[in-house]
Amino acid sequence: MKISDDIQKLLPFGYLFLVIMGILKESFFYYQIGINILKYSTIMDILISPIAEFTSHPIILISILSLFVFHSYLPKILTKHSQKKFVQKAFELKPTEAMSQTEIKTYFKDVSIKSLAIVLSSFFLSYGIAGGYFLSRDIKNNKLKFQHTLNFNSGESQQVSLINNNSLYYFYITKGSKTIKIASVQAVKNIEFTKNTMIP
Predict the structure, then answer these.
(1) What's the count of helices (H) and strands (E) in the chain, helices before strands?
(2) Is the dihedral angle over the CA atoms 126, 127, 132, 133 positive or is it negative?
(3) Are the C-beta atoms of residues 199 and 142 closer than 8 Å to each other?
(4) 103, CA 20 to 30 Å: which among 16, 41, 59, 130?
């Protein structure tokens, strides 16, 4: 019951942390291609950004779930192996000889939460920075994949490299161009996807 209570107390702060990390990731990503993404996002886009990121690829989802499972067991692991030097160094543990059992449990829980926060921060920030860098490099070097066709309500169709989309806009580059375009979701009738289509 105690663990359940602790989790319930941490959930609001944990989700707020993930939302902030999602905003930073998106900001770093889009900044490198000249877009202030917050101007094109709704509150709902911001709130679901962590969930959208976690479920964007099966490998990412499995890795994140494994990360949460591991850190849920980390306090027990630290309790058992806290005397090992590599564990002390990896988690920067302080001596626990003068602590009571209750204090030790609380301390290792705090270490686990701190470790999880650091890993998640590294994931979001590195993903945003690296993703934006590689995308801007591919745009510059004409190495984009043009796997989507946007069919607009006006009857016009364009073969594009779809960068991303949210609830209001599509962000894309048309074939033969290096300029990022933004189209309203309402202006697009449907999207066609073709695998392994690259610019010559």
Answers:
(1) 5, 5
(2) positive
(3) yes
(4) 16
pLDDT tens-digit map of 161-170: 999 999 999 9
Mutual angle of helices 58-81 and 101-140, in 10-degree steps: 150
Task: Provide the token pair at 121.
Answer: 């921060």
Please, which residues have CB within 8 angstroms of residue 169's CB and are 6 or more apart in sequence? Answer: 40, 182, 183, 184, 185
How large is the C-alpha radius of gyration of the chain? 22
Tens of pLDDT, residue by residue over 34-44, are: 999 999 999 99
Q: Order of strands, edge to edge, in the sheet holding 180-184?
A: 180-184, 169-174, 157-165, 148-152, 188-193
Residue burial 75-108, b: 16+ Cβ < 10 Å; e: rest: beebeeebeeeeeeeebebeebeeeeeeebbebb
- Name the residue type at position 20: I
Q: Distance between CA atoms of 85 and 101, rounded to whole angstroms? A: 21
Q: Which residues make Cβ contacts (< 8 Å) with residue 7, sequence separation at least 6?
A: none
From CA 70, how far away is CA 95, in angstroms rounded? 23
